Amino acid sequence: MAANNNPFRRIRLVYRHSSTLLKCVILAAIVLSTVAMMTLRFTIREYQDWQQELALQAAQLEQENRTLTKNIAQLGTVESIKRIAREELGLVDPDTQFFVPVENNP
Predict the structure, then answer these.
(1) Residue 29 placed within a domain
(2) What averages of pLDDT result for each successive group of 10 residues across the chain (106 residues)?
(3) Which of 15, 26, 48, 100 reaches 20 to 30 Å from 8, CA-CA?
(4) Is 63 within a domain?
(5) How many domains would you assign to the chain?
C-alpha cells in the first residue's frame, strides 16, 4: 500500500498518431493566423503613417493659429490700420511729401 501513495511514481505516457484531418485543420489554422497577423501588421503601419500625417497637420494648424491670434491682437492698433491702408488700399498719410526726380538734359 505504501507504493500507491508515493508521489514520485512513474507515469507512463502513450503517444498515438493523430489523424490526417486533425493535422490539416491545425495547418490551416496556423496559415490563417499568419495571414491575419500580416494583415493586422499592414493595417497598423497604415494607421501609424496616418497618425504622423495628422500630427504634422496639427502642428501646422497650431502655428497658423498662433499667427492669426497675433494678427488679431494687432488689428486695433494705429500701426496696423496704417499698414492695411498703405498695403491693401494704396492710401498714404496726408503729411507725406513726395519728390519726383527731374532729369537734367545737357
Answers:
(1) yes
(2) 64 79 94 97 97 97 94 82 84 78 76
(3) 15
(4) yes
(5) 1
